[in-house]
Amino acid sequence: MAKSDNPFRWFDSSPEVIQMVVMLYVRFPLSLRNVEDLAFERGVDICHETVRKWVNRFGPMFASKIRSKRVAAMRQHTHWKWHLDEVYVRVQGEMKYLWRAVDHEGEVLESLVTTTRDKAAALKFMKKLMKRHGCARSITTDGLRSYKAAMSELNVAERQEVGRWANNRAENSHQPSRRRERAMLRFRRMKTLQQFTSTHAAFHNHFNQERHLISRHVYRERRSAALTEWKSLVE
C-alpha cells in the first residue's frame, strides 16, 4: 500500500490498535467508555471520543472490505431463499423502520432505514437488495401488504411465501442489533443508524459461527480463520 493511499497515515496509533478498538465496539454490545477501559487494560490509553471517531471513520471501511471478500462466496448460495422483515427503531423520539434481509443461513444481505413502511419503502428496499444479489427462488415475508405490492411491481409476486412462523430467521436476525442499540442508548440520526446497521451487519456475518450448531473443534478452527482474515484487512 502506497503511503498516500494509507488511511491510517494521519494517526499516531498503529492500524492494528485502531482495528482492535473498532472491532470491540462494533462486534460486542459495549459502550464507548467500556471500549476505552478495555483498551486501557491492553496498554492503549485513548478517550471514548477517540473510539467514536475511529468507529465512524474506519468502521464502514472495514465493513466494505469484509463484504468485498465475501461477495463471491455469497452469490453461490444466497439465491435459494430470502427472509425479509422490518422493525421499529426510535430515532430522536420518532419511530423509524429498519428493514433487513437475510438468507436461509442467517447471512445478513441488506438493511435499509426508512420513515415509513408503505409500498414505496418496501420497493426501495427490494430494489436495493436485488441490485446487489439478484433475486431468490423464494422470498419469505410477514403479512405486511407493502411486500406484496412491491413484489407485484417487480414481477416476483409468485415467489412470496407468508407464514406464521416461517419468518423467524429474519426476526431473530434483529436481536444482535437490538443489543447494540441498547448499549448505544439509541440513535440520534437516521444517517447514523443506517451507517452503523450496515457496518454491524458485515461484522456480524464475518464473526458469526453459529457455535451452537457445530462441535467445539470446528468452532475453534472457524474462529481462528475468521480472526486471521480480519487481521489481514490492514495489510
How many domains, in number, for the residues?
2
* Amino- and carboxy-terminal Cα gap: 8 Å
Q: Judging by the overall fold, what is the CATH architecture of the largest domain?
A: 2-Layer Sandwich
The major sheet is characterized as: 5 strands, mixed
**What's the tally of helices?**
9
Name given to the CATH homologous superfamily of the largest domain:
Ribonuclease H-like superfamily/Ribonuclease H
Overall pLDDT metric = 87
**Spatial arrangement of strands, main beta sheet:** 3-2-1-4-5
Proportion of beta-strand residues:
5-15%
- The Cα radius of gyration reads 19 Å
| CATH secondary-structure class of the largest domain | Alpha Beta
What's the CATH topology label of the largest domain?
Nucleotidyltransferase, domain 5
Low-confidence stretches: none
Global morphology: globular
Strand count: 5
Helix content: 40-55%
The succession of helices and strands, N to C, reads HHHEEEHEHEHHHH
Structural class: alpha/beta
Give the oligomeric state of the chains in this entry, treating copies of one chain as homo and distinct chains as hetero: single chain
Please describe what this structure looks like.
The protein has 235 residues and is α/β, with parallel strands linked by helices. The N and C termini lie close together (8 Å). Helix 3 crosses helix 8 (190-207) and helix 4 (119-133) crosses helix 5 (145-153). It folds into two domains: 3-74 and 209-234, no CATH class; 77-188, Ribonuclease H-like superfamily/Ribonuclease H (Nucleotidyltransferase, domain 5, 2-Layer Sandwich). The model has no long low-confidence stretch (mean pLDDT 87). The relative contact order is 0.14. A five-stranded mixed β-sheet has the order 3-2-1-4-5, sandwiched between helices. Helices cover 53% and strands 15% of the residues. The longest helix is centred in the first third of the chain and has 28 residues, at 48-75.
